[in-house]
Predict the structure.
Amino acid sequence: MGKTFHKPLALSDQVTHYCPGCTHGVIHRLVAEVIDELGIQRRTVGIAPVGCAVLMYNYFTFDFLEAAHGRAPAQATGMKRVRPDLVVFTYQGDGDLASIGMGEIIHAANRGEKITVIFVNNAVYGMTGGQMAPTTMPNQRTTTSPFGRRVEEVGMPIKMAELLAALQTPAYITRQTVIKPKFVNKAKKSIKKAFEYQMAGQCFSFVEVVSTCPTNWGLTPVEALRWAEETMLPYYQLGDLKTPE
Amino acid sequence: MSKVLMKGNEAIGEAAIRAGCLNYFAYPITPQSEVAEYLSRRLPEMGGVFLQGESEVAVSYMIFGAAAAGERVFTTSSSPGISLMSEAISYMAGAQCPAVFVNIMRGGPGLGGILPSQADYLQATKGIGHGDCRLLVLAPASVQEAVEMVMMAFPLAEKYRNPVMILGDGLIGQMMEPVEFPDHLKTAPSNKNEWAVNGMETRKSDRRNLIRSLYLDPEKLNENNLILKAKYDRMKKEEVRFEAYNTDGDYGVLIVSYGTMSRVCRTAIDQLKERGIEVGMIRPQTVFPFPETAVEKAAGKKSCRVVASIEMSMGQMVEDVERAVKGKRPVQWYGKCGGDVPTPEEVMTFVTSLAA
């Protein structure tokens, strides 16, 4: 009987710095599995964000460029335009992509850059210690919304996938999650499609992944999974918003 | 190639192409938008990349992304735009990525004006962004020199794996002058596969490359800063460029001036000579590294009684001149910074007041 489970080649041996119950590890693995399956490790460049995944390059085995906060889609644009043969993806959190990087993501999407964006939405700034993000849920307590997000003051959380889907150019926009095994396989399929569309030179591809942050939510890992399912999923609905077919 | 009459901005665009740089990202801003207009036609012809970004911030990171992949890339902007790009320049210096940034300076601060200025001197020469970062800064005084400096800038950026800036005032961009283009540069970016993030398949080994400026370990960060400092020190040793004018004989006043302003000073020096007043000039062609030794030496001449920093700013380069002169001679400043270039007459009046 052959080996049925192994570590993807695209993942390194390093132990991650992620907190217990954080879903970055699962999403990293999915990206790595997809890169292995597509056989693109040697021509892929990842753009690492500012945020919890800032050190993600330590956990992968291919070329990486570090981004400034929010600027990853611009860096990916520059790289992909001068080296269209490379596979370029960004991996960004919600503070990074939906706040400081709002301009860069909208314009990269609207130009139809042939890049892939993995958008990890856990409704909070993780690395800086749990501040309110544009995706923070109404009444959600964070270190800068200690009484809960007051939507009458700061507005409703931004649905990035819907916002980008409103543009005519970007063609693959989807929202997935990894909070339950049944969702993980679907998320992987979406990530794979996103890379395949890029490789075919077809379109800008965007995969939002609803994620957890037990540490900054002040919950146990199990409670965090439940909170994401009960609070985030009704608002951040799963599924494809746009496909090129 | 024979001489052609060309606007500075267009010549800068053409010079980059001849330097083997076929990648350009930009955001329009007066007084340099003609570079983008010119290259939006020329680069597609050459099979190159032209992209108008959504902001100077985004453009500077497109430059970072392209540079990280080891390709020659450049952008052009003007003062307020350069302020927005200074963040990426700091990241690129920290991450050791080469690229060329052209600043066709306009008046400031804030929106300032759209006419020529040299008021970004301190910004360009004293570490443009946050952290210990420096740029190699070339300051052309004519369209011809702008062309030569653009072509020189790419190999310099690659030699140091550091951003290089062309610091020209608005007149350099807007003026038309006859220009002769040197032959195409034959060099390609060297050793890029050793450090660039251009896919592991470009390398013989299985090594993966990583480009970053983050070092959470204080010792590692200090180490990186020492590497950068060694490069800046090497620039000071190897890259100082300047031109001396009328410094062979005796002179009572030494002018230090660069860019368009130095050409006005040159006219003033010629006219003063006819009146029997001798004035020498050191014209920095690199403002970082600043030609300290040349200025010190020229100021130290027995006949020289006073040194004048003449610039289109409210006294920025004068700080470097003072540092170079080391208190051995009095240093005076003259300048204007509204957008109109001081006339030779104004310079002569100032210089004669010093010579008196």
Notes: The domain at 242-355 of chain B is CATH 3.40.50.920 (Rossmann fold).
